[in-house]
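Narrative of activities, Objective 1.

The group set out to show that a structural description can be obtained from nothing but a protein's sequence at a throughput compatible with the screening campaign. Below is one input-output pair from the validation batch, recorded exactly as produced.
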Amino acid sequence: MLFFRGLKPAACWVFLVWAFGLGQWSFAAPLITHEGRGSMVVGAIELDAQERQWIRDNPKVIVSSTQYPLYLFKDEQGHWAGLNNDLLNRISAMTGLQFVHEESFSTAETLVRLENGAVDMNTTLALTEERKTFLDFSHAFGGSGWAMVGRTGAPLLQSLDQLSEKILVLPARHALEAVIRRDYPTIELHLVKTYAEARALIESGEAYATIENEVGARLYPSGQLQVGRTVEGWWEPDHLAIRKGQPQLLSILNKALEAFPPAELRAIRTKWLDGIVPTPTPTVWQRATQWGCWGGAIISLFGLLSLLWNRRLTTLIKQRLAAEKDLSDQLAFQHALIDAMPEPMFVRDLEGRLIMCNKSYEEGLSTRFDQVRGRQLIEVDLFPAQTAELLHAEFMAQLATRKPRFSKRQLMFNTGLRDIYQWTVPFYSADGQLRGLLGGWTDIERRSGVEECQCPR
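Output recorded for this entry:
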């Protein structure tokens, strides 16, 4: 009990700390989970007169689309699917624009077609200073990091410094090409058309690494390739790239992206990317904090359970003490009641052993209860041996028959022969089990003398 009482203040503090941590986790949880996987109804957006006129003049927007799994690709039926396709479908429902995909087979080809005006826009190009000269970019609607991909068995790639004097293979006109040439001149760049060619060169040992969008890098089975760290400080936001000279189209797309509820965008991204991009490796401090929260939660739970159990035990102990007090009061009353009886009374168990008697019994047989408690009549010298054996046999026979016995008789005591009125009755427990005999006697001559006595007033 003292231990639990001492635990109360500490347990309360730990519980408060854990509850605070849980509240922070609950607040952050909606930021990392989507609110639903079903599509949400998005109403039409408000467009000005020039934008509505532009849509009437250009109902179809040509999209140069390079297959980029999960973002944009053709399914088994040859239909375009993916995160960006879902986004365009939502924008189409909001604005009335019709997006028509024209397949392109490389980043370089897509850029050429945008530069010469053959297509209107693209959904997978990263923003660079060079591209901003002939392209406009919409508001960002997501993003991911750039991951380094190397050969299995080689040291895990963690920074671009590891690629010094090594061959880095990239698709032509890659978003990071100019930056790497400028900031890492010791890296030997090798340009190809597609990421598939780049991965093949790494597998064959002709190149050391490539840099790919993290989603795309982790989508393919590892095989002979392994995904390293993301390039620190470089993040690739997702934009819609629009050929310059189409300000109305850019404005319409930005208004549509602004009208998206965050939960809707989060649901679309989660639908396609959930489980692909791993959670960043937590720092030592984050791990310590996490373990601390879990430890605090467990300790708090233990403390709370201990407090509840302590209160339960306290209640049970109080109830038990109250019951014991009531029982003690009842026993004290019973003893007082029996002792107040002027005639000898006794209680014997199923073996004939004495378990209770009153003061009159002690005085009538010149003994004390402590001397005869738990003993049979034949084991003590309260009566002559023949009388003791007779009475004990009667007690045992009566316990067998379970019948009460009332009789006037002469009985030999140690002090002589007496005329008595003797009674013995079986008694039972609350559940009906036979527990022993309750009995006593009245000295008839003494009783008669008392009744004939005329006391002066």
